[in-house]
TrEMBL record, chains A, B:
The chain crosses the membrane at residues 286-303, 315-339, 359-380, 387-412. The lineage of its organism: Bacteria, Pseudomonadati, Bacteroidota, Flavobacteriia, Flavobacteriales. CDD domains: CBS_pair_Mg_transporter. Pfam families: CBS, MgtE, MgtE_N. Keywords: CBS domain, Cell membrane, Magnesium, Membrane, Metal-binding, Transmembrane, Transmembrane helix, Transport. It comes from Flavivirga rizhaonensis. InterPro entries: CBS_dom, CBS_dom_sf, Mg_transptr_MgtE_intracell_dom, MgtE_N_sf, MgtE_transporter, SLC41_membr_dom, SLC41_membr_dom_sf. Belongs to the SLC41A transporter family. The gene is mgtE. SMART domains: CBS, MgtE_N. It is found in: Cell membrane; Membrane. This is Magnesium transporter MgtE. PANTHER family: MAGNESIUM TRANSPORTER MGTE.
Amino acid sequence: MQFQLTDELIEQVERLVENQNDKELQKLLKEFHYADIAEVLDELNLEDAVYVIKLLDSETTSDVLMELDEDNREKVLKNLSAKEIAEEIEELDTDDAADIISELPEERQQEVISKIEDEEHKAEITELLAYDEDTAGGLMAKELVKVYETWTVAGCLRRIRGQAKEVTRVHSIYVVDKQDKLIGRLSLKDLIVAKNEKKIADIYISNVDYVEVNEDVEDVAKVMAKYDLEAIPVVDENQTLLGRITIDDIVDVLKEEADKDYQLAAGITQDVEADDSILELTRARLPWLVLGLVGGVGAFLIMEGFQESFKEKAILFFFTPLIAAMAGNVGVQSSAIIVQGLANDDLRGSINSRLIKEMLLAALNGVILAIFLFLFVWFYKGELDKALAISISLIVVIIVAGLIGTFVPLFLNKRGVDPAIATGPFITTSNDILGILLYFWIAELIINIYN
Amino acid sequence: MQFQLTDELIEQVERLVENQNDKELQKLLKEFHYADIAEVLDELNLEDAVYVIKLLDSETTSDVLMELDEDNREKVLKNLSAKEIAEEIEELDTDDAADIISELPEERQQEVISKIEDEEHKAEITELLAYDEDTAGGLMAKELVKVYETWTVAGCLRRIRGQAKEVTRVHSIYVVDKQDKLIGRLSLKDLIVAKNEKKIADIYISNVDYVEVNEDVEDVAKVMAKYDLEAIPVVDENQTLLGRITIDDIVDVLKEEADKDYQLAAGITQDVEADDSILELTRARLPWLVLGLVGGVGAFLIMEGFQESFKEKAILFFFTPLIAAMAGNVGVQSSAIIVQGLANDDLRGSINSRLIKEMLLAALNGVILAIFLFLFVWFYKGELDKALAISISLIVVIIVAGLIGTFVPLFLNKRGVDPAIATGPFITTSNDILGILLYFWIAELIINIYN
C-alpha cells in the first residue's frame, strides 16, 4: 500500500508529460495522496512540474502546493498568475493560505489578496498575516468549531453540521460566552452522548488549555506535547477565542527545531538540505570554518610564543592535537547536555550547582584519561617529568573545557540568545585555543618545578 | 493559567507532606493536571513522592506514573506491591500499561500481570508485551472504535456510545469486514452527518492509511507526519485490525529520536539527562573521550615520525591544531547533512554523485580558507615555500575530510547501521589523524619540490 518514490515512476511521469498524454497522467496521479504527488513534483524540472500542476483539479493543486519543497514552491508560484494563486488560496485552510502568501514577494502579496473572492476568507488571511510567524498567531488557523454556552445540544449538533464542513477534522468544540470569550470545551463524543434538550452550559468542561496569540511556537509545542493535546485554542489578552493550532503543525515545528539544532551543533548556520546548491551550502558552512581558521591561527601564535622554552622539548608540541581534541570533545559534550536540558525545561537548580557538578564530572573523566596518557608517555618515552606535565595539564584542560561548555549555553540562555548556537564549532574553537594555552602554561610550570 | 514549577511550590508540598496534612495536599494537587503533578514529584525525594502517590485517587495515580521520569518511576514502583501496581495498570490504556510492565524486572512482570482482574485487559496487555518496543506493535494501543460494514448508522452510533467510553479520544472509526480485516474508515463527523438508516458499507471511505505491526516506529512517524495523520490503524500480514497508534506517542518518538541523534553528534553514547548521576554521565561520555585520546596518541606518533625531516621547520608543527580542527569541522558538517538527509528521506541519486558534489563543495571552501591562510603565513613569516605548503595541504585535507564525512554515513546506512553514530567524535577523530598525516606528507613534498 505504501507509496514508493522510484526512478521508474518519475521517468513514467516525465514520459507522459513529454507526450502530453494528459488522460493517462491524470489517471496515474489520481491514485496518489497529494503529499506523494508533491514528492514526485519535487523531482521534476520546473517546466514539467508546472505542466502537471495545471493539470490537477484545483483542490488537489492547493494541497500539493503546500507540500512542495519551499524552494520549488517559490519557483512554481512565479509561474502562476496572481489570479491563479488566489484560486488555490481559496481552497486552503486559513493557516496554510497565510503561509503561502507570506512567502510571496511583498508587492505580489497585495495583488494575490485582492483577487481572493470570499470576503471572510480574505479578512481572516489578512488577520493571520499580521502575526509573527514564530508565534501562536503565526501558526493558528481560523477554522474551528465554536458554540455558545446558551445553545442546546440539539441546536448545537445542527449548527456543528454547518460549521464542521469547513473544518477538516473536529478535535474539540470550543465553548464561548456572549463576548466570544473562551470558557470551556466539549468533545464531539460528549455531545453525542448528551441528551438533546440539555444546555451546553450544563455539560461543557471548563478546564480548557489554551495559549496566548503572542506565545512562542516552541512553548506552544511544549504545552501540547506535555498535555498530549491534539489541538489547542488560541486567545488574545482578553481571552477572546481567535483560532486553534493542530498537532500536525506542531509535529512540523518539532522537526524543524530538531533539524536546526542538529545543524547548529554541526556548524551549519542556515537551514540547508543536502540537495541545495553548492553556493547555498557554502554560505551556510563557511562562517564556522572561518572561525575555526581564526582559532587555528590563534593556536599557532600561542605555540610560537612557547617555542623558545621548549626548544628541547618537542614532544610537548606533538601532543597539542590531543589536547585540542579533548578540550573540544569535552566542551561539546557538556554544552550539548545543557542545551538539551534547557530545550526540554528539565534544568533546575542554580548555575553554581551545575558548574560544580560539571567540574566533578570533568575531573573524574580527566583523571581516568590522564592515567592512560601518563602510562603511555612514561613507558614509551621514559620521561617522568614530561609524562607528569602532560597528564596533569590534560586534567586541568578537561575541567576548564567542561566548565566553559556548561557556562556558555547557560549564559547565552540568560541573555535571551538561543543556546543551541553554543554547541559545535563555537565551543570547539574557543576550547581549542584556551586548552592549548593552558596546556603549555601548566606543562612549563610543572617541568620547571620538577627540574 | 499556565502551570509553573517553582521552588516555592515544591517547598509547599514538602511542608505539607512533613506535617502529614493530607487534606490540604489533596486540595492543592486537585488543581493540577497529572503531567504537572508528575513534574512536582520528580523534584521530591523518593519517600515524599511515594507518600503523595498513595494519597492520589487511583486514576490520577496511574496517569501521574506514566508521566514520571523513567528513573523515578522505577524507584516508585519498587515501593509498590504487585497488587498496587496491577490496580494502577487497570486504569491505564493498554499501550501505557504494557510500557510500564515492560520496565519492571522479569520476575515481577508475571506477578503483576497475574494480579490484573479484568481478563480482557490482561489478554490485550500480554499481547502487546510480545511486540518489539521499536515497532508499530510496541507503540499501539488496543483501544479503538471498530464498526462492521454491515451495521447501520443508527446501530453504529448506539454501539459507539458503548465502545467510545473506553477510548479517550475518538480519532477515526475503523471499518472492518466479517473477518475483522480493515477495509476503510469513517470520521465521527461523517457518521453524524449521515442518515440513520444508511449502511456503513455505503458511506465508509475505503482509502485508509495503515501500518503493519512489525514496521519500525521511525517509519510510522514518517508516514504520520507526511500525511498529517492523528491516528493510524495497525494491521497484521492478513490485514486484520490489531490496534491503533495516536500522534501523541509519535510526538514522543520524534523528540526521543531528535535527542538521541543530537547526543550522538555531541559524543554522548547513551540516553542521559543533565540531572542523571555523575557515574551515569561518565559512562555515557567516556567511550568517545577514550577514542579521542587514542586519536590524539595517533597524531602524536605521526608528528614524532616527521620530526627529523622538519627539524628546522617548527612552524609546520604549530599549524597542526589548525589542520586538525578544520578536518574535524568539515567532516562533521558533511556528515551532519548526510545523516539528516537520510533521516528525512530526502537523499536521492547515487553515492558517486553525492561524493562529487561534496568534493566540489569542499574544494570551494578549501580554496577560500587556504587563500586566507596563505596570506597570513606569507605576510607574517615571509616564507613563501611554507605558506604554499601549508595552504595547499589545507585544501587537500578539507577535500578528504568532506569525502570521509559524506562516505561514512552513507556506507553505514547501506550496512544497516544507524548513520547518526558517524557524526561527532567518530568523524572528528578519524579526520584529525588522517588530516595531520596528509598535512605532513604533502607539506614535505611541496617543500622538497620548492627547494
